[in-house]
Design brief:
256 residues, alpha+beta, eight-stranded mixed beta sheet, globular
């Protein structure tokens, strides 16, 4: 396996109002946004320190017809998209969009784990830009609200070689299981509490310098706080939010 196999390499927001979303995230997270320049594609790039970290596009027509809400999608790098999609299906996952090429960019497939949490597989052409996980404006944490931690963790370990790390006892909510890739903690997962009325899902935490100021920027532009702010092990502060179009997102900062 290559170093990039199993790493989150891209993030993409599919939404109903790209101009509003662009202005919202540029202000809240501190990104700068530019048109991708891709022919025949209305696709915006979010950048931090001139390094591209995420993309923005209008929700496809078929997604709107299925009443799929605006959402962030995470792309996991793999050595071979076709082989990974085949393996995923054998492990009980679902391939929602068969492997396909993005001309000049790479190959991808949209998939879900055995309990329905959606993500994408990706193999790019050339190297993806590298940026510190904790850099301001980057995605500092990846969180799975799993259908069943006991079976989903082994699924991802088998798919991507993730290593089980520290487990945090959350009392009645069960265990919050940290996981690592190439020796570094990159996220956590837990069985989704019954009080969350959505299917299992992946969530992404955007690094900001100070949490309260970012929350104020979000609220001023129509975002809503759904949980937090709260301090997490290690001393960071996090908050779970919904943007004005209804997409779930999270913020993490070293201070309030």
């Amino acid at each position: 396996m290559s170093k990039g196999h199993g790493a989150f390499v891209w993030y993409e927001l599919m939404t109903t109002d790209t101009k509003a979303a662009e202005a919202f995230y540029d202000d809240v997270v501190g990104w700068s946004s530019v048109d991708s320049g891709m022919p025949d594609a209305n696709y915006t790039l979010f950048k931090t320190n001139d390094v591209r970290v995420a993309g923005l596009m209008t929700m496809p027509e078929n997604a709107l017809k299925m009443n799929i809400p605006p959402a962030w999608l995470g792309y996991v790098g793999v050595d071979d998209v076709d082989a990974a999609a085949t393996k995923l299906a054998k492990l009980g996952g679902t391939v929602h969009r068969q492997p396909d090429d993005i001309p000049g960019v790479g190959r991808f497939a949209v998939v879900a784990d055995p309990h329905g949490a959606v993500f994408a597989l990706f193999r790019g052409i050339g190297d993806m830009p590298e940026i510190s996980q904790m850099a301001s404006g980057n995605i500092g944490w990846h969180e799975l609200m799993a259908g069943d931690l006991a079976t989903d963790l082994p699924f991802y370990q088998e798919m991507f070689g993730w290593r089980k790390d520290e487990g945090i006892d959350m009392g009645d909510m069960g265990t919050y299981q940290l996981f690592a890739h190439n020796g570094a903690q990159i996220g956590g997962m837990m069985t989704k509490p019954a009080t969350i009325p959505t299917p299992p899902y992946w969530g992404f935490y955007f690094n900001v310098e100070a949490l309260d100021a970012a929350i104020a920027r979000s609220t001023a532009k129509g975002g809503k706080v759904v949980n937090g702010p709260m301090e997490v092990p290690g001393g960071a502060w996090v908050v779970n939010c919904v943007d004005p179009q209804g997409a779930y997102f999270n913020l993490v900062a070293p201070k309030r």
